[in-house]
Amino acid sequence: SGRPSSCESGGGHVIVWLNGAFGAGKTTTARELQQLIPGSRVFDPEEVGTLLRDRLLPPERLAGLGDYQDLLAWRRLVPDTLAALQAQLGEDVPLLVPMALHRQDYRDEMFGALASRCIDVHHLVLHAEETVLRKRIEADGVEAGAREWRLAHLDVYAEALPWLRDDAAFVDTAELTPRQAAEQVRSLLRAGAARVPIVQDPVAAGDTVAAAVLLFDESDRVLLVDPVYKPGWEFPGGVVETGEAPTAAAVREAAEELGVTLHADDLRLLVVDWEPKRGPRSGGLRLVFDGGVLDPAEQAGLTLPAAELRGWRFVPAAEWDAHLAPNKAARLRAALAARAAGAVAYLEAGLPR
Question: Domain of 75: which CATH number?
Fold first, then answer.
């Protein structure tokens, strides 16, 4: 994070993601939108879920599954398929994706994967109040099981509305036909009102060195940040650039991500952790520095880059596991132990060596 984008702005790769409640008319509106945008194509991620469920995954892997979006394979394959389709069809072919996406961490994971491929996502929600949605779903000609499933998931959509309103352009479809809704979507696309501001930084092909900085409040809680391009919370920091000292990278990242001014001479190394490659992201050496305590004035002055981070908070020890991946929670505990002992810890995959 914090590095300049390696993608050319406005390169032409475009995904139009039509979100909303299950049964809100996303697919019908997408078909209408396809007629309004010459050359566009509709891709339904549900087909990937059906393939995984019916053909590829053994039954024991599906036991207790409530939604195929909970499958890591689905969340990986959908961005991969969209990128492959754009490579096949050409960057000037917009892909229209009618798909309910109600978990923000899944949104971060998938939109971040597309951004790392230099693909712009335009995120729109086809909205209607619950009473309208219930009437539409009950009047739909789908089988009873599908109808009941859609009705049961209206609460999930309602719970997602706060973050969706911050992330997407809304089209109120209560009084609109699918064609009229598609026309409003087209207008929002032309105005650029639905484009997701997310850093487009291709994932490194090989191992990297990254520098994180731990910052504290007066109660010794640790400052964590919430990236928009991947799930979970993180320490402030990022990849060390070619020819850059790790302490300089930590100072630069603190300034770029938080607006905090640090000095390399004041940083103390706490942890060196070798991280193996996990999933699509590279591994390498992860350095953790002690950046000290932020006073109330510095806390009040924190500023975030909207294309990278959506929030920050000081997190007590009891909540580390709820915010961080297990390897990062282990790294944080090792860093705090080293801080207390005035030592430096060496880890491999989060474990002391």
Answer: 3.40.50.300
DSSP strand pairing (268-275 vs 169-172): unpaired
How far is the C-alpha of 324 from the C-alpha of 15, rounded, in Å?
A: 30
Residue 219: how many other CB atoms lie within 10 Å: 8
The domain total for the chain is 2
Q: What angle do CA 9, 13, 16 make, to 5 degrees?
A: 110
CA-CA-CA-CA torsion for 279, 48, 134, 35, nearest 10 degrees? Answer: 110
In a domain, 7, yes or no: no
pLDDT band at 64 (very low <50, low <70, confident <90, very high): confident
321 Cβ neighbours under 8 A, 6+ residues apart: 329
Rounded Cα gap, residues 180 and 100, in angstroms: 20
Task: Give the residue carrying structure tokens 């409640």.
Answer: 21
For the entire predicted model, the pTM comes to 0.90
- Mean pLDDT, the chain, rounded, equals 92
197: in domain: no
User: Which tokens sit at 46?
Assistant: 């549900």
Q: Is the pLDDT of residue 8 over 70?
A: no
Indicate the residue among 191, 221, 251 that finishes a domain.
191
